[in-house]
Amino acid sequence: GTDELKGLSGTLKIVIAEGGKHYYEFDYELAD
Fold this sequence. Notes:
The protein is mainly β. Helices cover about 0% and strands about 55% of the residues. It is elongated and about 40 Å long.
């Protein structure tokens, strides 16, 4: 369920690389 995401905070970035390829970068922290 979504309970696992309690206390989860982060940022999602879409990175555009050379040649037009793109990928996602997700940096997150879990609160104690």
